[in-house]
Each structure stands twice: as C-alpha cells, then as structure tokens.
Amino acid sequence: MAKRYIDQFMWGYQDIFRSSLGTEISSVLKAIGFEGDPRVTLIGFQVAGEHAHSICIEQDEPRYTAADLEAVQKLADQKYAQDPDSRSFHSDQRMHDSFHASLRSRKRAEALEETLGALPGEENRVFFAWNSVRVGDYAVHIVVSVDRHALDAVPRIKTTKRDQFRIHPSLFHAVIWEALGLAARSLHLPEAGANLRVLGASPGEVARTATEAMMHALLYCVGYWFGNDAHLLMNSLSALPYEGREGSGRIVLAKSDNPALDVMVAISRPISARNMLAIRKILEASGPEADVLFNGENVYGLGLVKSDYDPEAESVFVVTFTSRGTWELSHAGLALLTVKDGIPTLPTYVLDEHYLADLIERLFPDGDKNVILEAARAAGEHRHGAMLVISADAAGEAQRLSPQCWSVQPARPSPKLIMQLTDMDGAVLLDPNGRCHAIGVILDGTARGEGDPARGSRLNNAVRYLGSEVPPAIVVVYSADGGIDILPRMHPRKRKEEVRDAVATFLELAANRPLNFESAYRAWDVVKSLAFYLSQAECDSLNQAREALEEYRMASSGMSVGEILLKPDPAMNESYWV
After folding, report:
1. C-alpha torsion 306→311→313→316, nearest 10
2. Is-contact 124 148, C-beta < 8 A?
3. CA-based, 20 to 30 A from 10: which of 53, 118, 273, 381?
4. Residue 488: is the preceding peptide bond cis (ω within 30°)?
5. Nearest to 352 by CA among 443, 461, 474
C-alpha cells in the first residue's frame, strides 16, 4: 500500500483538512442554490523554525507555486501602511499588539486575493481569503475561489462597508464568510482535519447563521446598529397566522427620518420588535397603499418608499411575505434572498430570462423575443398563479381548445392587459410574435408518466400538454407559491470544443502515473455533467479510462470507487450544439 507523502509540509492532516473543507463548502453553497465550482487552497507563510519551504501551498492539483506568491508579503505591507487603522493606538499593550497583528493578517489575506486573481488562467475565478491562523511554524490562510460568472449572477447590493462595519452584499458572501470563519476556528484545534469534519455545523446551520449576520449587517445600512434578531422576527411573522389567515404583506426596513419614505400613518407609541403578536396584527393593515415601517427596533408607522428613492443609497430594504413560512428580502425591486420554513436560499422565484430567450431562439427563430419576454414578465405580476403559452400554431390551438377557452381576434396585448388577463383561471395563448389568440385556456394532454405529483395542476397540465403531439410550444408556469417553471426543460446548447476538452482532460489525467486521484475525480465530475452530449465512442473511451483508474487505485491503496458507466443519450442531436 502506498504511503502518504506531503512535500510542502505544514501539519500532518493538511491534505485531509483541505479536502474535507472543500466537500463541506460545496454542500453549504449547494444548500443555498449556488453552483460555482468552489475550490479550497491552504497557503502557509513560515513564521518560525527552519524549513525547506518558506511558503507552503496545499492544493488539490498543481495550480500555484511559491514563486507566484513571493510578492504577497510586500504587497501586504504596503496595504497595511496605507490603511488609516495602521496608525491607531491602544493604551493596553496586549490589545494594541492583537489589533495590529489582526490588521496585518487581514492585509495579507487581501494581498493573496489580489495576487491569486491576477495569475494567468485565474481571471475567471474570484478569491476569498481568511485571516491567518498559526499552525506549527506557519501562519496559514484558508482561501476559497469560485467561478466568476456564477458569482456575477448572484443578486447583491454594492455596499461592503459602512462605518467600519463589514456588510455582506449577498447571501453568498455571508455564507462564504461564515464558512471561512468556522474553518479557521477549527485550525486552532490539535490535529485539525483528523476527524474529517471541519465546519462542525450542517449546511443548513451555516446558511441560517449567515442569514442572521447578513440581516444584522443590512440594518447597519439602514442606520440601526443593534439589530440581532430581525431574521427571527421575519421567520415568526411569516409562520404566524392571524385569525386563520397566513402571513402576507410587506415590511420596509428604514429609519423614520429617511427622506426616501412617505410616512402616511405615524404610530404614537412605536411597537417593539419583541411584541411579535402586535406586529403580526398591524401587518394585516399593509397593502398596495401602505407598507409597515420598521427601523430594526420598532414598528413606527405605515407608509411607502417614494418613487424617487435613489437605489445607490442602499438605505431602504423590503421584506415581502409571500406565503405561509416564506419571506423574501429585496432592495429596489431586486430580490436578495428567500427564506422558506427557516431555510434561506438565493432567490428562486425569478424568471430565468436567459433560458426563456434561448428557448425562443431554438423553437421560434423568427419570433419576437423581446415581446415574448415582456409578456412573460407581465404574467409574473399575478396575484394567485398564472400561465402563459406561446405556440407555433396559436391560431390552430385556439380553435382546437376553444370549447374550453375563449378564442379572440389576434392582437398584441399590453403588459398591463396581460397582468389583468392572468387574474382569471386558465392560460393566455400567444403566437411567437406576441399576439394573443385565446384567453382562459385549459390545456389538455395525456398522462405519460411525467410531471410531478408534489406540484399543482398548472405545472402538470403543462407537462401533459407538451407531452402530446402539439405544435412546438413554450409554457411559462407561475405557481401560487411563487415558483416559476419554463417548459419544455431542454439541455442548454454547448460548444463541441467544451465537451471535447473535458473528455481529453479526463483521459489525460486518468493515464498519468503516478495518478492525482483528486484531479482525476474532479475531471470525471465535469465529464458526468456533460454526459448528455457524449457520443458512443466518447463514452467507451471514458468508461475504459475510468476502469483503468480504479484498477490502479485498488492496486496502490486497496480500495476503489464504484461508478455507473456512461452511455449516450438517444435525445441528443445536432440542435444542442452552438
């Protein structure tokens, strides 16, 4: 059996610590709905003793070298000298030393983020580094990187600091910061990584604690410095019925003197945040004409955010209660996070316009994409669920379905009219150029073992309809609980080069001896994610390479990992290539 050997040695369990942390952070980010290929790296700077390496890097595959990081300490020293806090003084010597040691560590972490992000080939990654923790003779930084494009898609505000306080601009940032803090704490333990658990908390616990920190930080933006339990209040209000009715309405988080507010009703004795029943009762008074106003400590009235509010100020936030146990935090109309039954996620109740536009291009190449997107947005303003059907033969379908709908003279409705039409039961039927052919449409179709029994009739009717022999069509389903589905569900189009490169990368890594198992398995995961696009020949080559990889692992370590063989998908055709 092969021996474990660590070339750049900091402590005995460093590779297990990094690998375990990588798995846990992936699980945490998946729990909030983020898929961005997270990678964990440990970087240690020698601070004592005599060692062969003054900079040690623990990584899953060779990406960075000590030479890449030689200028980090100099850059960190420059950042420290430029920071106004470097000139601060504390009368207590221990506090003074601790403060400046922490500041220097923070600046080195920032220097690492900047240096790693500037390396060739890393321009599509974003790096997050925690302050160093002393482990043996090294000051060790935990670094997590994610895909830049995935992070760019995360809704966020711009503020990252307010009066020396850190602001988490998104749920992702709050979660990654919470996870890094927990991981750094575990570095203080003897033999960190030996028990295969690093964070010491479940993905749900990490996400909930991060949400608490994010809400607390956003109250700094509002101008209130002592709010600790705002997220608990929102969870309770969303779950607490009032005379049998579920929670609904909106709460505006803002100070009473914020000029962006129009306070219509000022409460003489503001209601404390601790008086949940009273706040739940006054929530019933909120509606289109006025929202409940809350400053982080008290409910002080009813009012609205003025139309001329400057979003750049980022001083007013809104909590919307959408259904029992569900609330959404937003800023200037941008949803930042959704919490359902106490479980926070990135917003899921958002129309995927990119996917809808792609479907329109594929199914209706001569259609008016912008008009259809505008209609889909308008349908999303429903009050109790809605459905929009775009058919290549809308006129024919309107006649065929007319016993169960009202066929109309083809005309392009305004967005406001579409909002009004979706208030009735049934779908609105459009052609690819946005002209309406029928309203109140009840879709037909034969059950074919598809659909989802956990979902409502709108989605399942749409699935049955598309599963029948009907002209090419797109169905946008808005469920009453806030979920959005765009049907049919088709695999995205890919570049042939992307798939071929992924196959070649795995075949090359699997053939290397000695074999870097972690790199090879990561490459295999990429290939599996592209399984739909693989040909028979590619599947055969990949399966043979995987089998040889496992034989080598069994011979070298006495263990192997089972895997289902890849096979081509009969639904794959040339239309899926870009």
Report:
1. 60
2. yes
3. 118
4. yes
5. 474
On whether the CB atoms of residues 173 and 156 are closer than 8 A, the answer is yes
Answer for the pair 141, 93: CB distance below 8 angstroms, yes or no: no
Three-state SS for 145? Answer: strand
SS3 category, 47? coil
Quick check: 577 and 496 in contact, CB under 8 A?
yes
DSSP E strand boundaries for 87-228: 125-129, 133-135, 138-147, 161-162, 165-166
Residues forming a β-bridge with 135: 138
Return the residue matching tokens 């009840």.
442
Cα first-last separation, the chain: 47
Given a contact cutoff of 8 angstroms between Cβ atoms, the answer to whether 401 and 423 are in contact is: no
DSSP per residue, 458-493: HHHHHHHHHHSS--SEEEEEE-TTS-EEEES--PPP
Amino acid at 302: L
**C-alpha pair distances (Å), 142 with each of 400, 505, 510:** 62, 27, 28
Sign of CA dihedral 356, 486, 154, 238: positive
Query: Which residues, other chains included, contact 480 with Cβ-Cβ below 8 Å and sequence gap of 6+?
Result: 323, 384, 385, 456
Report helix, strand or coil for 292.
Answer: strand
CB-neighbour burial class of residue 139 (10 A; exposed 0-12, middle 13-18, buried 19+) = buried
CA 54 to chain CA centroid, nearest Å: 37
Dig out the tokens for 20 from the structure.
């375990």
- pLDDT tens, per residue, the chain with 578 residues: 445 678 899 999 999 999 999 999 999 999 999 989 899 999 999 999 999 999 999 998 788 999 999 999 999 999 999 999 999 999 999 999 999 999 999 999 999 999 999 999 899 999 999 999 999 999 999 999 999 989 998 999 999 998 878 999 999 999 999 999 999 999 999 999 998 889 999 999 999 999 999 999 999 999 988 766 788 889 999 888 766 666 678 999 999 999 999 999 999 999 999 999 999 999 988 888 899 999 999 999 999 999 999 999 999 999 998 878 889 999 998 889 999 889 999 987 667 888 899 999 999 999 999 999 999 988 887 767 789 999 999 999 999 998 889 999 999 999 989 988 888 888 999 999 999 999 999 888 665 545 555 565 777 888 888 888 889 999 999 887 667 889 998 998 899 999 999 999 999 999 998 888 878 888 998 999 999 999 999 999 999 999 999 999 888 878 888 888 999 999 899 889 98
